[in-house]
Amino acid sequence: MYIFQKSLTAIIISLFCVFSANAQQKNFDIVVYGGTTAGVSAAIQSSRLGKSVVLIEPTKRIGGLTTGGLGQTDIGNKQAIGGISREFYQNIKKYYDNPANWKWQQKQDYQDSGQTRTERGEATMWTFEPSAALQVFQEMLAVEKNITLVYEQRLNRTLKGIRKKSGIISAIQMENGQWYGGKMFIDATYEGDLLALAGISYTVGRESNEEFGESLNGVQANITSSSLTGVVSKNGFNHNFVDGVDPYIEKGNPKSGLLPFIEKEHPSKDGTGDKRIQAYCYRMCLTNHLENKIPFEKPTNYSELDYELLIRNFEAGEKVSDFPWINSSMPNRKTDTNNRRGFSTDFIGQNYAYPEASYKEREVIAEKHLNYQKGLMWTLAYHPRIPDAMRSEISKWGMCKDEFIEGQGWQQQLYVREARRMRSDLVMTQKQCEGLMIAPNSVGMAAYGMDSHNVQRYVTKDGFVKNEGNVESKVAGPFSIGYKAIIPKETECKNLVVPVCLSATHIAFGSIRMEPVFMVLGQSAATAAVLAIENKVSLQQLPYERLRKVLLKDNQVLEN
Question: How confident is the model at residue 237, as a pLDDT?
Fold first, then answer.
């Protein structure tokens, strides 16, 4: 009798454990990890094609950089943007067509400029406030019936956080223990955390020029460099120090040590590969409207030494008219403010560990970036050694009371310009960007120039400070991104799509890594996932013509 009761108890406990495990797993057709623009686009497309989808965002806010301050859309060529991506910018236009959304200025008083200019009669608008982008995305998601949106759940990045067998992922686990099962998975993060957990091949850093027959990859310390098509780009010229800026704590005395954020080693030979990545920053949304302005504040851990190079750059001859920011105008007297000149918002060389770092380590890196940028803005606005004209202008600006309210105008989203990049059967390279090769089986187009922000700060052989890594080189025109660049090798995984950390070299990714392109690729990724489910094949075995047919029907732009 005792043995029977003991066995019955064991069975009940076993069944309870099975029930509890099942209760902790929620199943969907498609699991999208990362609520970036690519993730939002992928979720919407999955829903529209009739599949159940969960969109898991690790933070409290969807939209990545598009809702995180990057309101000056990097386009290259507007005609290359189609599908849900163009729909988003059309909805931005509709948002600003509503007079109620103009609080701090009249609509007729706002002027955009450059490549983002909204032409007369155009149905789209390419500049916007972070809060406007967030509202538009929320409204686009709200009308979809098949989307479950989850906030503040981060992937368990240990090996226990994924169920994968024979190249097929069946479920992924969050840090809180919640499992999400699916037939297809999409990694839409800027970091590539899911692809790494799934054991997919990837790289971090800059390839050598030799590896893929490029000319703009690897170390770029020289002022000029020729592209493969013979075009000469001034790679080391922009966003650099003027000549003669002393790098030592005590001017002229190497024994006193280097000022902060300067590397001890001189860069390797041009074109040499390394594990360094281009600099990160926060894209600031500023205002000069007194009712909505929060003045720049001095951080509690402020150190003047951290900004000595900035001051010395002015002392060495930097023009006061050359403000160290790109202060692009957004609606309602706000800005999208980005890096410019030799010492600016880019925290050069301080992000190398970020792609592979733990969550805690990333938080530390992000906090250092935030404090650096807060200190930078306070220095420019109020430090007595900054030229008067500079202080007078910059102190007119401040953070916005009605943006990123929890952070007093500062956002959580760090500008992760690059992190991991997948290595699949197709690697997008400089040759595709320059039109020397065409990637087969297009799933979208990119059109922005090949763009890398600076990677390291060093001492020249003449004993002065310079930045290295800046590349700004034109593309031949809109170019196709091949399907195999967003899916892993079939031997590694059959049901994962990667629209953000796709397979590309450092310099090719420098063109592709733009928010409208990520939205395009998110839609294409979801389309491929849905069709693979319906055709009961792996992503790699999906006939491209079937995918192409649906993409074109849904207004994707696939070729010139």
Answer: 82
Which two three-digit tokens encode residue 463?
């004993």
**Phi-psi sector, 209: left (phi>0), alpha (psi -120 to 50), beta:** alpha
Q: Higher model confidence: residue 120 or residue 330? A: 330
**Is 62 in contact with 98 (CB distance < 8 Å)?**
no
- Percentage, residues of the chain above pLDDT 70: 96
3-state helix, strand, coil in the chain (%, to 5): 35, 20, 45
Residue 127, helix vs strand vs coil: strand
| Spatial contact of 519 and 231, defined as CB atoms under 8 Å apart | no
Which two tokens mark 202? 């990837």
- Does the structure show a pLDDT above 80 at 10? no
Length of the chain, in residues: 560
> What is the bridge-based pairing of β-strands 179-187 and 496-497?
parallel
Query: How far is Cα of residue 247 from the mean position of the Cα atoms in its chain?
Result: 31
In the chain, domain spans? 9-205+476-553
Phi-psi region of 228 (alpha: psi -120 to 50; beta: other; left: phi over 0): alpha
Query: 86: Cβ–Cβ under 8 A, 6 or more apart, which residues?
Result: 124, 555
C-alpha dihedral over 188, 513, 206, 495, to 10 degrees?
Answer: 30
Confidence at 23, pLDDT banded by 50, 70, 90:
low
Per-residue three-class SS string for 199-223: CCCEECCECCHHHHCCCCCCCCCCC
2.60.40.1640, 3.40.1180.10, 3.30.420.40, 3.50.50.60: which CATH number matches 9-205+476-553? 3.50.50.60
